[in-house]
Recover the amino acids of this structure.
């Protein structure tokens, strides 16, 4: 079974530039998550989708971050404009069930962003 | 809101020795508790989880964890560590069914020969 796919694996940009990350969840998984993992910290949830609807985006910095999940499958996370503090690994995860506690989360390998 | 504390940033264990990684949580009701492992350059993988019932739960790769309500703890254990266990370990808590997870800051496990 194919896992969660993410791209690009690595991205280096200058501050104030924009960047986009793509995630393809495991086939059939209705719930998709984007996490931000800053070095030395645990993953922090940015946004959760159930099919193509947003369930929780309370920790998403909406002035610069946006995410969408068109057609309830793939998802993109965009940052515009990027700040130095956005340097992190962006993890995508998916689960079969409607919540992180009722089903196992399957994580992708992450997209490492460096903002100079 | 729920929170998780992993007191140890790094732990070094000799290969073949036993391991215990500490996790303390803060949540008013019975939490949903998880341990995930992250190998270098990889995503997180679920080791085990606790929802209810037997407070000693078995996971993959020979790991187990014990839920102790009186101590608000969910420590991860393994009787004999292998070099391949070197990785970062994250404890996470959920506030209820269908809730999101809050992760701790992680404990980096180093295994010495």
């Amino acid at each position: 079974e194919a896992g969660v796919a993410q791209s690009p694996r690595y991205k280096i940009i200058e501050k104030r530039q924009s960047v986009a990350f793509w995630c393809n969840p495991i086939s059939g998984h209705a719930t998709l998550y984007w996490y931000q993992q800053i070095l030395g910290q645990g993953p922090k949830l940015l946004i959760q989708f159930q099919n193509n609807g947003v369930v929780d985006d309370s920790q998403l910095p909406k002035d610069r971050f946006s995410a969408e999940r068109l057609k309830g499958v793939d998802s993109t996370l965009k940052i515009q404009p990027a700040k130095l503090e956005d340097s992190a690994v962006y993890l995508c995860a998916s689960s079969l069930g409607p919540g992180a506690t009722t089903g196992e989360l399957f994580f992708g390998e992450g997209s490492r962003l460096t903002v100079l | 809101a729920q929170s998780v504390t992993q007191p140890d940033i790094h732990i070094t264990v000799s290969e073949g020795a036993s391991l215990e990684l500490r996790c303390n949580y803060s949540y008013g009701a019975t939490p949903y508790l998880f341990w995930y492992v992250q190998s270098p350059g990889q995503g997180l993988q679920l080791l085990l989880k606790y929802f209810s019932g037997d407070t000693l739960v078995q996971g993959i790769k020979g790991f187990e964890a014990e839920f102790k309500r009186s101590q608000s703890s969910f420590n991860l254990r393994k009787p004999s560590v292998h070099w391949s266990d070197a990785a970062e370990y994250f404890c996470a808590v959920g506030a209820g069914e269908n809730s999101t997870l809050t992760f701790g800051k992680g404990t980096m496990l180093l295994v010495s020969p």
Summary: The mean pLDDT of chain A is 93. Chain A touches chain B at residues 3-4, 33, 40-45, 48, 56, 91, 93, 97-102, 104-110 (CB under 8 Å). The two ends of chain A are 37 Å apart (CA to CA).
